[in-house]
Amino acid sequence: MHQFLPIAYFKNQFIPFEQAQISVATHALHYGTAAFGGLRGIPDPQNPGQILLFRLDRHCRRLSQSANFLNFQIEAEKIEAIIREFVRKNRPQTSFYIRPLVYSSGLGIAPRLHNIEKDFLVYGLEMEDYLAGDGVSCRISSWYRQEDRSFPLRGKISGAYITSALAKTEAVESGFDEAILMNTQGKVCEATGMNVFIVRNGTLITPGLDQDILEGITRDSVLKLAEDLGIPTQQRPVDKSELIVADEVFLCGTAAKITPVNRIETFPLSGERPITRRLKSLLARITQNQEPKYQEWVTIIPLD
Q1: Domain assignment of residue 105, yes or no
Q2: How far does Cα 80 stand from its chain's mean position?
Q3: Domain count, the chain
Q4: Are 88 and 202 found together in one domain?
Q5: Interval 156-169: pLDDT, tens
Q6: What is the pLDDT of residue 176?
Q7: What is the pLDDT of residue 6?
Q8: Tell me: the pLDDT tens digits for 234-281?
């Protein structure tokens, strides 16, 4: 049962979460004409009077760019200002997740993006680990990731997530925790809401941006951290068989953070995972504002 934060931003005002309701005729509900973001926040472990948000500016910029695909212009600076005030009004006491959404709020029935009202909302919920911290099992999904030539994959568009939902349920109902999707070229793409990394012979490898993946913010962070740690990296196509022979495999995303993979289909993976552990530990310290080198990634929201 989700514990939602008490205040939402809806129709240009802050109101109780329970009052933030849309019509059953809302365009986005029927046609997936929406784009969303997601970012994590925690009470500062060193100062309970303030909240820490990870890479707020990057999340706001991506949502602003995603909104362009919906024929809706909203500046990243406006999104950021609303999220800052949202946090101050809710005063969360535990780890939480923020969900901003831009959407077609009109009540028309034609699938279109022109001549229909758009709006912006924000709500949040308490969230600890999204996936098991000690690792997950993954199956290869029978569903394929969309192609950028038929879907704007550079945006975090809500309609795309029917594929993720199908893949996730298929995985869970067949005894796995998570699914890994291939792209239409038969190469490894991503999980249902996370990017995929593998380690082979000391090199960190992830599908490149030309592989129909979402441009993940945590993915970008991991690549930067690996570079700073002196870990060689490659962004390239990844074959399905490489998942099985890899020394390490992990998933990463805002909700999942860095989650190791213990098993691919029936093939167990090594539990050693030295590179995964280094990256996971460093990322956790950064989000707690304990690494001065990466302070620009952490936004501090004073509550008083």
Answers
A1: yes
A2: 17
A3: 2
A4: no
A5: 999 999 999 999 99
A6: 98
A7: 98
A8: 999 999 999 999 999 999 999 889 999 999 999 999 999 999 999 999
Q: What is the 3-state secondary structure (H, E, C) of the chain?
A: CCCECCEEEECCEEEEHHHCCCCCCCHHHHHCCEEECCEEEEECCCCCCEEEEECHHHHHHHHHHHHHCCCCCCCHHHHHHHHHHHHHHHCCCCCEEEEEEEEECCCCCCCCCCCCCEEEEEEEEECCCCCCCCCEEEEEEEEECCCCCCCCCCCCEHHHHHHHHHHHHHHHHCCCCEEEEECCCCCEEEECCCEEEEEECCEEEECCCCCCCCCCHHHHHHHHHHHHHCCCEEECCCCHHHHHHCCEEEEEECCCEEEEEEEECCEECCCCCHHHHHHHHHHHHHHCCCCHHHHHHEEEEECC
What's phi and psi for 176, nearest 5 deg?
A: -115, 165
Within-domain flag for 304: no
Cβ–Cβ contacts within 10 Å for residue 73, how many?
11
pLDDT (0 to 100) of residue 108? 87
**Structural domain of residue 98, as residue ranges?**
7-126
Three-class DSSP labels, 2-64: CCECCEEEECCEEEEHHHCCCCCCCHHHHHCCEEECCEEEEECCCCCCEEEEECHHHHHHHHH
pLDDT for 168 equals 98
Residues 142 and 280 in one domain: yes
CB 286 within 8 A of CB 274: no
User: Could you tell me if 152 and 120 lie in one domain?
Assistant: no
pLDDT value at position 133? 79
Check residue 238 and give its pLDDT.
98
Residue finishing a domain among 104, 126, 148: 126
Q: Which residues of the chain have pLDDT under 70?
A: none
